[in-house]
TrEMBL record:
Source species, domain of life: Bacteria
SUPFAM superfamilies associated with the record: Acyl-CoA N-acyltransferases (Nat), Glutathione synthetase ATP-binding domain-like, NAD(P)-binding Rossmann-fold domains, Succinyl-CoA synthetase domains
Source organism per UniProt: Kribbella aluminosa
Domain ATP-grasp: 679-717
Keywords from the named record: ATP-binding, Nucleotide-binding
Pfam families: Acetyltransf_3, ATP-grasp_5, CoA_binding_2, Succ_CoA_lig
Name of the protein in question: Acyl-CoA synthetase (NDP forming)/RimJ/RimL family protein N-acetyltransferase
N-acetyltransferase domain: residues covered: 30-184
PROSITE patterns reported for this sequence: ATP_GRASP, GNAT
Length: 899
C-alpha cells in the first residue's frame, strides 16, 4: 500500500516494500504489512479475541489484557532492530509476528495468531517474511522461547526447512536457528506456495454455487449471455441472478435477487458484469456474503488509462484484503469440464468436451476463437481461464493448480505479457518436469505490452524469452495453429525416445515435404522412407508399418495416406490402428488431410472422446513433423542427465555484501567501479582479473612495462575505439622499451591525444595466453531481474545477436547449454584445426557470475568484456561493473507473496 491508502500518516522509515498480499493454507488471501502506531486499536481488538491459552503460550503467564504501555511498545518499532508484521483480513488483524534484536546479528522472534485463524499457515508466512526482513537488516539468527505443550509453534520452526537447535531449560524449550535460505527451506516454501496457490484456484474452478451479478433478461447483453451459458452448460450447483433493478423472482428460470447479500444460501463464486464504477461496491457486498472468488467480466479498468488503472489497483487490493482472488477484470471467464462441475462461466456458448488439455490465455477476444478451434479439432478440455487484464490471477497461479490436477495432462499457455518472469520460469520449470507445457508468447519482436496489463517493461531482446522457455522446459511455438498441433500429439501419443523417425507414405510429393521439414527441425530419418504406390493396399501398409514398429532404431513414425480416388480409408485406418496399438512409439499422420483425431483412428474413452493411443491427423506432413519435433525436444529436456546448482565453496558472499554496502555509502546514487574496486569485488567470487595499469605518457608506459617484465600490450580505453573493426585498439607483443615507444607513437597517431590530459587514454597489461575471446555479462532487468549473457567477442557477433541467455541460478546443464547453443560455438571446439579450449573453465566462470548477480542485486551491470579462453583455462582481461541502489526489488523473493 502507499501512504495515500491509509487514513493516517505513515511513520518515518516505514518499509512499504515489506507489504504483501499472501495466500493462506486454505487458499484464501490476506494482507501482510508492518505495524504502525495507528494500529493500536486493531491490536487491542485483536488481543481481546485471542483465547487465554494462546495468551499464556505467548507470555508464559496469565495476561488478560494489554496495558497502554504494552500497546505503545508493541506498535512503535524502528523497523530494523525491532520489527512487527501483522496479517489483516478486511479491517481486522488476525495475526502478528515480531522480532527484537538481542545482539549484533541475533534476534528473538515471537508470534500470536487469533485462535479462529490458527491452522491456516499464518505462523509460517510470518516467519518467512520476518526472516527476509531480518536478513536485509543484518540479522542472521533467530532465537525463540516456547512452552513444551505449544506444539503448533514448535512445528512452525521445525517444519520451516532451517536447521533448528533445541534445548530444554527451566521448563522452556529454547529454539535457535540460522535464517540464511537453504535448499531445504526454499523447497519447503515453494511446496507450500504451490499447495496454497493451487487451492486458491480450485476455489474458483470448483464452486458449489454461482451468482451472476448484473444478470439481465435482455438478450444480447453480457449479463444475459453469462447466465445462459452457465445454465445451458449443465452446471449442477446452485445458480443465482443478481440485478439491482429487478423486481422479478427469476431471470431465465434462475432465482433472482436485488443484491447478493439477499441470497439465502452461501455463494462460492460471483461472476460480475456491472459498470466499472460499481464493481468496488459489489466486492464489498461479496465480502459480506462470504464469497470466495470473483470473475470480473466488466471493462473500464486499466485498458482505458490512468483512471482505470487506479480503479483496477483498488479492486484487486480490496478483494485480496477480504480473502478473495480475482479473474479479470475485462475477462472472458473460466470453464471446468470435470464431472459434477460442468462450469461454463464465460461469454462463449461453446463448451468443449471433457479432455486432458488445460488452457490459459489473457485476451477475451482471442479466447472465443480458441474455444471454437478446440471444438473443431475435437480436442477435449479439462479447464480454461481467460484472465483479461490479469490484475490478480495469472498463468503462474494456473500452473500451480495444474501441477497437482489429475484431470490435466497437457498445459497450453497463450501469453501476452509476463508479470513476474522469475516466478514464471521457476513455476513453469517445476510443472514441465511433470507435464508438457506448450506456450505461445505474443509481442516478442516488439516487446509490446497489451492495453490494460500493468507490468514492468523489459529492455531485454526477444531472444531472452525464448531462452527462458528453453531453460524452463517449455515447448515454445509461434502460432495458435502450432499450439494446437502440438497439443493434439501430446494429448494422445507418448513422448518420443529419440530423434530417428520412419516415414510410411503413399505420396512421393508429401514424403519430400516431410523430409525437408525433418531436416530443418533436426530430426533424423530412420532408414529409407517406405514409399508405397499411390494405390497401395491395406496389406502394403500393414507390411511397411510392421517393419517400422518392430525396428528398435525407429523412435517415431509418420504415416501419410492420400487416396488415389474418393475413399473413406477405413481399411487403412484399421491397419494403422492395429499396428500402433501395442507400440510405445508416437505416431502422427496425414490421414485424408484431416485436422483432428479422425473417427477411424480414435480410441474412445468413457465419455466418447479420444483416449490416449488415438492417432492425430494433420493437414499436411509439415505440421505433423513440426509437432513431432517439438515433442522430441521436450522429451530430450525431460531425459537430460542430472542437473544441479554447483557448490562454489571459495565464494565469499558476506564479503561481497559488505563491499556493496560500503560502496553505496560512498556513492549513494550509484556509480561505475574503477579498476581497483572491480578487482576487489570480483575477487570475492573467485574471478581473477589480469591487472591493467592506466598510463598518461610514453615514459609512464615504459616504466610500467618494465615493472611487469615486458611481454605486455598497450590498449586504448575509449569505448568507441573498441567497436571499430577498422582500427586496432590493442598493440600486442611489446618486448622492450623500443617496442613500447613505437607502439605509443603509432597508437597516439591513430587515436589522437586525450582531451583531458589527466585522464588515461591507454592502459598497459601483461600479455595473456592466446585463446578465443568471449564475453560474459549480466544485467539487472526491471522485469526479469538478473539475466546472464554469453557470446564470442566481435562486432559481427553483436550485429547478429549471437548470444545465449539464462536466468540465474544456473544449473550445470544451463551453463553447458549456454556455451553450446551460440552459432559461433564451433570456434571453441577446434574449428579448422585450432586447439579446443577448456569448456569447463567457461562454465565455471558462468556459474560464478550467476552467483554474484543473484547474491548482489545492487550490481545492476557486470561485463567481463574480454575473456580469453584457451586449453589452459580462462583469463579475464577487461571488465565493467556498475553498482546502484535497487529501487524496484526483485519480484520473486524467498518469502511467499502474490505479485
Amino acid at each position: 500500500m502507499t501512504e495515500g491508502q491509509y487514513d493516517h500518516a505513515l511513520p518515518d522509515g516505514y518499509p512499504a516494500e515489506y507489504e504483501a498480499d499472501v495466500v493462506l493454507r486454505d487458499g484464501a488471501t490476506a494482507h501482510l504489512r508492518p505495524i504502525t502506531p495507528a494500529d493500536d486499536h486493531l491490536l487491542v481488538a485483536f488481543y481481546a479475541r485471542v483465547s487465554e491459552q494462546s495468551k499464556y503460550y505467548r507470555f508464559f503467564a496469565p495476561y488478560p489484557e494489554l496495558s497502554d504501555r504494552d500497546v505503545a511498545r508493541f506498535t512503535q518499532v524502528d523497523y530494523h532492530q525491532r520489527l512487527a508484521l501483522i496479517v489483516t483480513v478486511g479491517d481486522e488483524m488476525i495475526g502478528v509476528g515480531r522480532y527484537e534484536g538481542t545482539g549484533r546479528s541475533t534476534a528473538e522472534v515471537a508470534f500470536l495468531i487469533e485462535d479462529a485463524h490458527q491452522g491456516r499457515g499464518l505462523g509460517q508466512l510470518l516467519l518467512e517474511h520476518l526472516a527476509q526482513a531480518a536478513r536485509e537488516n543484518g540479522i542472521h539468527r533467530f532465537v525463540a522461547e516456547v512452552l513444551p505443550d505449544n506444539r503448533k509453534m514448535i512445528t512452525v520452526f521445525t517444519e520451516a526447512g532451517y536447521k533448528v537447535a533445541r534445548e530444554f531449560e527451566d521448563g522452556v524449550i529454547m529454539v535457535e536457528f540460522d535464517i540464511a535460505p537453504t535448499d531445504t527451506s526454499f523447497g519447503v516454501m515453494q511446496a507450500r506456495e504451490q499447495r496454497s496457490e493451487a487451492l486458491s484456484i480450485a476455489r474458483l474452478l470448483t464452486p458449489g454455487s454461482v451468482a451472476v451479478i448484473g444478470a439481465s433478461r435482455r438478450e444480447g447483453t453480457i449479463g444475459n449471455a453469462l447466465l445462459r451459458n452457465l445454465r445451458d452448460g449443465g452446471f449442477p450447483g446452485r445458480l443465482y441472478a443478481v440485478n439491482t433493478d429487478t423486481k422479478a423472482d427469476e431471470i431465465e428460470g434462475v432465482p433472482a435477487y436485488p443484491t447478493i447479500r439477499e441470497v439465502e444460501d452461501t455463494v462460492d463464486l460471483a461472476v460480475v458484469a456491472v459498470k466499472a464504477e460499481m464493481v468496488a461496491d459489489v466486492v464489498l457486498d461479496c465480502a459480506a456474503k462470504g464469497v470466495r472468488g470473483l470473475v470480473v467480466v466488466s471493462s473500464g479498468f486499466a485498458e482505458i488509462g490512468d483512471e482505470g488503472r487506479q480503479r483496477q489497483r483498488y479492486l484487486v487490493g480490496l478483494a485480496r484484503s477480504y480473502g478473495m482472488r480475482v479473474i479479470g477484470p475485462n475477462a472472458l471467464g473460466l470453464i471446468n469440464t470435470a464431472p459434477g462441475v460442468s462450469l461454463n462461466a464465460t461469454l462463449s456458448p461453446l463448451m468443449p468436451s471433457k479432455g486432458r488439455v488445460a488452457f490459459f490465455c489473457q485476451s477475451g477476444a482471442l479466447g472465443v476463437p480458441i474455444l471454437a478451434d478446440m471444438v473443431g479439432r475435437g480436442l477435449g478440455l479439462s479447464s480454461f481461464v481467460s484472465a483479461g487484464n490479469r490484475a490478480d490471477v495469472s498463468g503462474n497461479d494456473l500452473m500451480q493448480y495444474w501441477y497437482s490436477d489429475e484431470a490435466t495432462e497437457v498445459v497450453l499457455l497463450y501469453l501476452e505479457s509476463l508479470g513476474n518472469p522469475r516466478k514464471f520460469s521457476r513455476v513453469a520449470r517445476r510443472l514441465a518436469g511433470r507435464k508438457p507445457v506448450v506456450a505461445l508468447k505474443s509481442g516478442r519482436a516488439t516487446q509490446g505490452v497489451p492495453v490494460g496489463q500493468m507490468i514492468r517493461r523489459s529492455q531485454l531482446p526477444p531472444a531472452t524469452i525464448e531462452a527462458m522457455f528453453r531453460q524452463s522446459g517449455l515447448i515454445g511455438v509461434d502460432t495458435t495453429g502450432e499450439l494446437f498441433d502440438v497439443a493434439q500429439l501430446l494429448a494422445h501419443q507418448p513422448l518420443p525416445k529419440g530423434r530417428r523417425v520412419a516415414i510410411v507414405s503413399n505420396s512421393d510429393a508429401l514424403t519430400l515435404l516431410a523430409l525437408d521439414t525433418m531436416a530443418s527441425c533436426g530430426l533424423e530419418v530412420a532408414g529409407e522412407p517406405r514409399n508405397l504406390r499411390a494405390d497401395a493396399t491395406p496389406s502394403d501398409f500393414g507390411l511397411a508399418l510392421s517393419e517400422v514398429f518392430s525396428d528398435d532404431k525407429v523412435h517415431s513414425v509418420v504415416v501419410i495416406y492420400t487416396p488415389p480416388v474418393q475413399s473413406s480409408g477405413g481399411e487403412i485406418a484399421q491397419v494403422l490402428a492395429a499396428a500402433a496399438a501395442d507400440s510405445d512409439k508416437p505416431v502422427v499422420s496425414t490421414f485424408l488431410a484431416s485436422r483432428s483425431v479422425p473417427e477411424e483412428l480414435r480410441v474412445p474413452d468413457e465419455d466418447g472422446g479420444a483416449a490416449r493411443g488415438s492417432i492425430p491427423s494433420f493437414l499436411n506432413p509439415q505440421y505433423a513433423v513440426g509437432a513431432l519435433a517439438k515433442a522430441t525436444q521436450y522429451a530430450e529436456w525431460r531425459r537430460r542427465s542430472d542437473s544441479r546448482i554447483p557448490d562454489l565453496p571459495d565464494i565469499d558472499t558476506a564479503g561481497g555484501e559488505e563491499f556493496v554496502a560500503e560502496f553505496l555509502q560512498r556513492h549513494p546514487s550509484g556509480a561505475d567501479l574503477d579498476e581497483a574496486d572491480r578487482q576487489r569485488l570480483l575477487s570475492f567470487y573467485g574471478i581473477p582479473v589480469l591487472p591493467a595499469f592506466p598510463v598518461l605518457s610514453a615514459d609512464e608506459a615504459v616504466a610500467r612495462a618494465a615493472d611487469l617484465g615486458f611481454e605486455v600490450i598497450l590498449k586504448a580505453t575509449a569505448e568507441q575505439w573498441r567497436m571499430r573493426p577498422d582500427l586496432a585498439d590493442i598493440w600486442r607483443h611489446i618486448h622492450d622499451e623500443e617496442d613500447m615507444r613505437a607502439a605509443w607513437a603509432e597508437m597516439t597517431r591513430t587515436f589522437g591525444v586525450a582531451a583531458d590530459p589527466g585522464r588515461a587514454q591507454f592502459v598497459v597489461q601483461k600479455m595473456a595466453p592466446p585463446g578465443v575471446p568471449v564475453v560474459i555479462s549480466t544485467i539487472e532487468d526491471v522485469s526479469f531481474g538478473p539475466v546472464v549473457t554469453f557470446g564470442l567477442s566481435g562486432v559481427a557477433t553483436d550485429l547478429l545477436g549471437d548470444r545465449s541467455y539464462r536466468m540465474p541460478p544456473l544449473t550445470t546443464r544451463d551453463a553447458a547449454e549456454m556455451v553450446r547453443e551460440v552459432k559461433a560455438a564451433p570456434l571453441l571446439y577446434g574449428y579448422r584445426g585450432s586447439d579446443p579450449v577448456d569448456i569447463s573453465a567457461i562454465e565455471d566462470l558462468l556459474h560464478r557470475v550467476s552467483r554474484l548477480t543473484l547474491d548482489l542485486e545492487e550490481v545492476v551491470r557486470l561485463d567481463l568484456r574480454s575473456v580469453l579462453v584457451s586449453a589452459q583455462g580462462t583469463t579475464v582481461l577487461d571488465t565493467r561493473v556498475r553498482i546502484a541502489p535497487n529501487e524496484k526489488p526483485r519480484q520473486d523473493t524467498p518469502a511467499r507473496r502474490l505479485t
